[in-house]
Amino acid sequence: MRLPCILLAALAVEVATEASAHAQNYPWCANFADGAGVNCGFSTYEQCMATSQGSGGFCTKNNLYTPSRAAAPARRRARKHRLRKNF
């Protein structure tokens, strides 16, 4: 009886600490022929076409794509002391 309780507790901890899944966010979608599906996992149009052409499909822009925010440029620190001039 003790072993099933320990296993159940370990499983609960594993599920609780599991990282959440994030949807992929890419600008191009491959639409495969004959309704075989859609894959919106392409960074460039060329990548998308290389994949979808083999099945007779086509590529479209992903309407749900939102570009990631670029990091703010690093600020230069102000000098605390003047540079010494050699005379």
Summarize the structure.
This protein has a domain at 22-61. Helices cover 28% and strands 17% of the residues. It has two helices and three strands; from the N terminus they run H-E-E-H-E.
What order do the helices and strands come in, and which of them pair?
Elements lengths: L1 H16 L10 E5 L4 E6 L2 H8 L5 E4 L26
Antiparallel strand pairs: 1-2, 1-3
How would you describe this structure to a colleague?
The chain has helices at 2-17, 45-52, and strands at residues 28-32, 37-42, 58-61. With 87 residues, it is an alpha+beta fold. The protein has a domain at 22-61. A three-stranded antiparallel sheet has the order 2-1-3, covered by helices on one side. The protein is flat and about 80 Å long.
Catalogue the unreliable spans.
none
Number of helical regions? 2
Secondary-structure element series: HEEHE
Number of strands: 3
Strand order of the largest sheet: 2-1-3
Radius of gyration: 26 Å
Helix content: 25-40%
What is the averaged pLDDT score? 77
Strand content: 15-25%
The helix/strand class is alpha+beta
| Main β sheet profile | 3 strands, antiparallel
Shape: flat
State the end-to-end distance.
87 Å
